Amino acid sequence: MKSNFNNSKPAIRSLADLLPGETGRVAKMPADNSVGRRLMDLGLLPDTPIRALRRSPLGDPSVYELRGYRLCLRRADAATIQITLDKLSP
Amino acid sequence: MTQLAAARDLSPLRLGLIGSPNSGKTTLFNALTGLRAKVGNYPGVTVERREGSLNLAGRQAVVIDLPGTYSLDPISPDEAVVTQVLAGEIEDVAPPEALIVVADACSLERSLLLITQVLAKEKPTCLVLTMMDELAARGGSLDTQRLEAALGIPVVPVVGHRGQGIRTLRERLTDPEAWSQPQILPPGDRAALSGWVDSVMTACSAQRPAAHALTERIDRVVVHPVLGSLLFLAVMLTFFQLIFAWATPAMDGINEAMGWASEAVRNAVPPGLLADFLADGLIAGVGSVIVFLPQIVLLFALLYLLEDVGYMARAAFVVDRAMARIGLEGRAFVALLSSFACAVPGIMATRTVPSPRDRLVTILVAPLMTCSARLPVYALLIAAFVPAENVIGPIGLQGLVLFGLYFVAPLAAMTVAAVLRRSLLPGEGMPFTLELPSYRMPSLRLWLSQVGGSAWAFVRRAGTIILVASVVLWMLLTFPRTPAPPDLEPEAAAAYALEHSAAGRIGKAIEPAIAPLGFDWKIGVGLLASLAAREVFVSTLAQVYATEDPDASLREAIRADIDPTTGRKIFTPPTVAALLTFFVFALQCTSTIATMARETNSWRWPAFAFGYMLALAYGFAFLARTVTAALI
Q1: How many A-B residue pairs are in contact by the CB < 8 A criterion?
Q2: Is the ipTM, as predicted for this complex, more than 0.90?
Q3: B39/B186 same-domain check
Q4: Domain span including residue A24
Q5: Is residue B71 predicted with pLDDT exceeding 50?
Q6: pLDDT greater at residue B574 or residue B334
């Protein structure tokens, strides 16, 4: 989906950089290997809105909300997922 | 009636139940089949096989409860079971003729991805939507008739724990041949799926539910950096306490009851071999099975309660980082912690670990944790040989040794886990993924059936092996029967019989092998007998040394024991150090071996565990002996 309504170029980041409370959209998934396919089967398809909820007390993993449920991912796995950051998020 | 129709009515209809964890699949399975599930294993893998029968109007059906999964694209042999069952590739498991997909209505959007993969199997499929009540409570809605039209398959909403919708579902299940099938399959390419999911969600005019407000509020505390950590510690301490201390009265009660039963048999049956067999072999064997039940029931009662409420996923979330250091994940923590009390429930608790590799590593290192059966051995040897002097202030040497023995074990377990994860069982195959479900009121019925099922599975599957092993060990310690010289005291006669039994002979035969550790044949017999359970070491030594009570007089006897050939004491400080170290590492426990065999569905892994732990035990015992000898 093209975001023509937004003139500023959306910033591409990794999901691991999404701070608690921030929202974004999945831009690019890792290569079509078994790990990438599994993450996609969990709902992390391109263009999926995703919100970082909080980090574990020890700093890793983090919990995200997407497609109506809460999913925990480790930083190392989240780092393989590219997202565009929602500018409008609080 | 045509031949085909006749065949149809004779063989039961096979229905496959597919759904993600937390989808309400187990509740639906129980609602459909009652509590008559047959539980077993699929050949060659650790996946549990559950089937239940269902009486539909005029037609018998079997529901196959397939393991909970988010995807039909397997990335491990265990996950491949689902695809193999669907394809009928497993011997003796006929493939299901029709499929039931179970999905939580609140996360339908995600479940649609699993549904696409199921539809690609091109079997009659129907969708069961659970938690419709929660969807409404959270301000969400969806039109199930429009969803039916969009997907092209029947959709049945249910509220599993209240049984609502089950009747409609049963009516629909009678005739899968008549189910509508999709005109066009959803796109097989994942890149195109996002659009398809959106179009289905729009077509059924789905109003996405608001976040579960209560869950948000509870999570603010439960995964709070400070409060969450404290809660985690408190819950884990409760687990530990439950198995370590609160199970003890029931276990003592069972031991006492077994003692009474033995006594009653001895009173009823004339003295002799039969009485010995019944009292010491059979009843003791049955006792050694059911003595585990208090721990297993208590562990699983708490585990399933917290799982059903939704806390176990949070606990795994909190502790995951620490577990990642040793190559495992958060869900393995409870299993390892429980193994501090007893490896048998600990190994059974690894069922919550979804990755087969992580689960296997956890099973293999669980017996290294300092279980409570090691305590009597430590207590005897420390009381007998470690001087009761204070080292620093009020801290005594005896306490320090016990502390050391306790803490070297988890260090060893962590090291072995890290090594296994990198060498024998490597692979980054599975990303760590964990769903944090919404908090729910647990269902009493589901909870009872889960706890009862675990206890029964232990008795039926591991219990039989434990019973046989106990009887075999009793036979080794009893036969061949050599009449003792008539002038001996009863205790001395028992010692004489034991020395001439098969176990006594094995002890003597292995003496050269254990001599480097300073062990003589008597310790060898004790080690052999301790295979029944580690604490049996103490009572066997009491028998070998012909002492009446295994406490004070045994301590005196082993302190005074002299090697007849060298004239030196057997239990020197280096030998005691070696023996304590040996018990830290060795897998001296038939029950653990049996449980391991059942949970891994093979004898290969228990054999491996026994082997590596024996090697560690021997190596470190030798080291401990050498170092202690050098220090003195």
Answers
A1: 125
A2: no
A3: yes
A4: 12-85
A5: yes
A6: B574
